[in-house]
Design a protein that fits this description.
Blueprint (H helix, E strand, L loop, with lengths): L7 H12 L5 H8 L3 H14 L18 E8 L5 H11 L5 E6 L7 E7 L2 H14 L4 E6 L18
Antiparallel strand pairs: 1-3, 1-4, 2-3
Length: 160
């Protein structure tokens, strides 16, 4: 998806709703200094264009008993489309795997973020992946402290 045509008001709208998605339409319109109807139409346009992919509630993993975050790096032998399809199918079976990236650089081909209740739960997941995935190496990094965690993207052009 390429860059869409947006004006400064669209960018400001995106900045506001990504930080606090439950702002009432009247508050959004007031902050943007536009009519509620215009604000609603902009939101609908941004959804149709794909700039807004959805609206979610962010849960507190600690409150849910999920204090462990592990990053699992995987290097693979094959990089075929078939392997990627199989890999995608396998990782989609695990709700604990919250993010997966194909990466470049030394040491790994794929980076997985895994959120779970305990190291024992992580070990179970890793052992299952070992039995299901064709790979060269796996390296695990267990987080000790979360210094920054955000879902907010850097919205361009809001300071113009």
């Amino acid at each position: 998806m390429g860059l869409m045509r947006m004006d400064i008001t669209d960018y400001k709208l995106l900045e506001l709703i990504q930080k606090k998605g439950d702002l009432p339409l009247s508050d959004l319109a007031k902050r943007l200094k536009i009519a509620k109807t215009s604000c609603w139409n902009r939101i609908r346009k941004l959804e149709e264009q794909g700039a807004i992919k959805g609206r979610y509630t962010i849960l507190n993993r600690f409150a849910l008993g999920l204090p462990v975050v592990v990053f699992l790096s995987i290097t693979v032998r094959r990089h075929s489309a078939t392997w990627v399809d199989q890999f995608s199918s396998i990782i989609s079976q695990y709700s604990e795997i919250t993010e997966v990236y194909r990466v470049t650089g030394e040491g790994s081909d794929y980076q997985l973020k895994i959120v779970c209740a305990s190291i024992e739960d992580y070990d179970r997941i890793q052992q299952e992946l070992i039995s299901k995935i064709e790979f060269n190496t796996m390296n695990t990094r267990v987080t000790l402290q979360e210094l920054k965690h955000t879902h907010a993207l850097p919205v361009p052009n809001i300071n113009n």
